[in-house]
């Protein structure tokens, strides 16, 4: 059976070029959209790798990393050989009740709160013990195992909120992060995403310590958009 609908318009609507900021995360999201929307039914094969890579304007390496995620989570089966490819095994189903409006509300609130706290933190330009705290947490996230990464990631983000200078912002962030972690616990830990996340952490801390408000805000926004893309891909 062919994965291409008549005319191909539906595939084109989903498989447009991804943005460069969160390439891996958005690729996973687009591939899952193909399945969730029924554009590639169970038992059918996804478009060939070359076609997917060209449509999404990504490297074959990134595409294969994304396909491995779908294979590891049981969404597709990758077969080798002349008649091989990535075949849809089952429709991914949400594994949490925190969906729909609540998911979107949480992501929106987090974006507003964290981009704001990054901007405020950079404006204060952490020095001394505050700067060392950020450097230490950055090093801890970089050295963390898969099992410990989320805990150190939470502490780094919480530190940014606390260093915004507002106790209310820090308290509100702690509350929303608890919900975010509950959502994150429902999706797999993806090493390519964590590596990318750590690179963004490094850029964020550098912007904060340099007092670069614009860079801190933009980096945090892009960082959050990557996480949001994965959450929507697996849970929406």
Descriptive terms for the model:
236 residues; mainly alpha; Arc Repressor Mutant, subunit A; Four Helix Bundle (Hemerythrin (Met), subunit A); 3% strand; GntR_C; FadR/GntR family transcriptional regulator; DNA-binding
Summarize the structure.
The protein is built from ten helices and two strands, in the order ααααββαααααα. It has helices at residues 9-14, 23-36, 49-56, 60-72, 100-124, 128-143, 146-162, 167-184, 191-210, 213-235; strands at 76-79, 85-88.
Which runs of at least 5 residues are low in confidence (pLDDT < 50)? 1-7
Mean pLDDT: 88
Radius of gyration: 19 Å
Number of strands: 2
- Helix proportion: 55-70%
- Supply the CATH class of the largest domain: Mainly Alpha
> What would you give as the CATH superfamily of the largest domain?
GntR ligand-binding domain-like
Largest sheet: 2 strands, antiparallel
Please indicate the count of domains: 2
Give the CATH architecture of the largest domain: Up-down Bundle
CATH topology of the largest domain: Four Helix Bundle (Hemerythrin (Met), subunit A)
The H/E string reads HHHHEEHHHHHH
Number of helices: 10
Distance between the termini: 27 Å
Shape: elongated
Strand order of the largest sheet: 1-2
Tell me the structural class: mainly alpha
Roughly what fraction of the amino acids lie in strands?
under 5%
């Amino acid at each position: 059976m062919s994965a291409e609908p008549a005319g191909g318009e539906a595939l084109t609507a989903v498989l447009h070029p991804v943005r460069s900021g969160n390439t891996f995360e958005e690729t996973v999201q687009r591939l899952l959209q193909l399945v969730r929307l029924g554009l590639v039914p169970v038992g059918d094969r996804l478009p060939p790798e070359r076609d997917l890579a060209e449509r999404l304007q990504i490297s074959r390496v990134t595409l294969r990393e994304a396909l491995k995620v779908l294979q590891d989570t049981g969404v597709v089966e990758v077969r080798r050989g002349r008649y091989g490819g990535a075949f849809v095994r089952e429709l991914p189903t949400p594994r949490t009740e925190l969906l729909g409006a609540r998911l979107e509300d949480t992501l929106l609130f987090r974006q507003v709160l964290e981009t704001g706290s990054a901007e405020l933190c950079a404006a204060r330009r952490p020095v001394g013990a505050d700067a060392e705290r950020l450097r230490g947490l950055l090093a801890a996230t970089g050295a963390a195992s898969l099992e410990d990464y989320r805990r150190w990631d939470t502490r780094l983000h919480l530190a940014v909120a606390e260093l915004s200078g507002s106790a209310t912002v820090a308290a509100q962030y702690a509350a929303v992060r608890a919900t975010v972690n509950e959502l994150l616990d429902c999706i797999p830990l993806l090493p390519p995403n964590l590596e990318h996340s750590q690179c963004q952490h490094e850029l964020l801390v550098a912007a904060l310590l340099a007092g670069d408000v614009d860079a801190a805000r933009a980096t945090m926004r892009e960082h959050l958009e990557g996480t949001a893309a994965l959450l929507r891909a697996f849970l929406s």
